[in-house]
């Protein structure tokens, strides 16, 4: 016989195991909060902007051909910014206890769409060091690109600075907790359905009909009598050993 599960039964299962779901969700949120606030190290981000063009003080109008050529070179410049030639000098100038490869992992270079502006992002556990690295990488790139590409077309639009209110970019505890709550509810619901599926005990007449595939003719109810209350039945008198027992 094909077994069908109604929406009411699904909701009933969730309500039946609501405490289990809430417990799993609470423990997951608590664990996420503890890890986010007390275990993970905050990471801060600093950024600087570079403008790549054919700078010429005497020129007031830019040629569309030159702009298009510059746009095609943006990807090349993005690679050069993170190259060992630039990063090794930045490490040496700042006297960082890092290799060029380790510094490379901290830097992200992005270019605006159809724009000659390049953003250099640096992430570090120290906000001041992140700003210093971003500014130094930009300065070294501006100097070295003259030798590498034999052009002088890089300008620094904005230097990285350390804001008064240092806000880490990760971890984000509230976001982590919110995501964990959703995952906890989903896990709790899964655990509730699994527990209900594995529970093969008979609880009511519906279970009997479902297991035996037979109609239910009747059931025996349990009568609960309060202490001191009369049941309405006279007690039988029983004779034993010549004596009468009972009322």
UniProtKB/TrEMBL annotation:
It comes from Bacillus lumedeiriae. This is Wzz/FepE/Etk N-terminal domain-containing protein. Residues 142-196 form the Tyrosine-protein kinase G-rich domain. The keyword Membrane applies. It comes from the Bacteria. Residues 4-91 form the Polysaccharide chain length determinant N-terminal domain. It is a multi-pass membrane protein. Belongs to the CpsC/CapA family. It is found in: Cell membrane. InterPro entries: Bact_polysacc_biosynth/exp, GNVR, LPS_length_determ_N. Keywords: Cell membrane, Membrane, Transmembrane, Transmembrane helix. The keyword Cell membrane applies. The chain crosses the membrane at residues 20-40, 174-194. The lineage of its organism: Bacteria, Bacillati, Bacillota, Bacilli, Bacillales. Its main location: membrane.
């Amino acid at each position: 016989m094909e077994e069908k599960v109604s929406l009411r039964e699904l909701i009933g299962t969730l309500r039946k195991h609501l405490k289990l779901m809430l417990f799993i969700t609470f423990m997951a949120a608590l664990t996420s909060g503890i890890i986010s606030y007390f275990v993970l190290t905050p990471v801060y981000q600093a950024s600087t902007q570079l403008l790549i063009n054919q700078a010429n003080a005497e020129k007031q109008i830019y040629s569309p051909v030159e702009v298009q050529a510059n746009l095609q070179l943006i990807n090349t410049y993005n690679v050069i910014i993170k190259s060992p030639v630039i990063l090794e000098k930045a490490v040496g100038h700042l006297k960082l206890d890092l290799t060029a490869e380790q510094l490379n992992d901290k830097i992200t270079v992005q270019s605006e769409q159809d724009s000659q502006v390049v953003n250099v992002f640096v992430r570090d556990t120290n906000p001041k060091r992140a700003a210093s690295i971003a500014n130094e990488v930009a300065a070294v790139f501006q100097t070295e690109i003259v030798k590498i590409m034999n052009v002088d077309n890089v300008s620094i639009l904005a230097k990285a600075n350390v804001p008064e209110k240092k806000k880490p970019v990760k971890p984000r505890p509230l976001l982590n907790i919110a995501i964990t709550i959703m995952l906890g509810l989903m896990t709790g619901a899964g655990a509730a359905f699994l527990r209900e599926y594995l529970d093969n005990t008979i609880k009511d007449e519906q279970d009997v009909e479902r297991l035996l595939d037979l109609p239910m003719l009747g059931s025996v109810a349990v009568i609960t009598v309060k202490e001191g209350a009369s049941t309405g039945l006279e007690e039988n008198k029983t004779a034993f050993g010549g004596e009468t027992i009972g009322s």
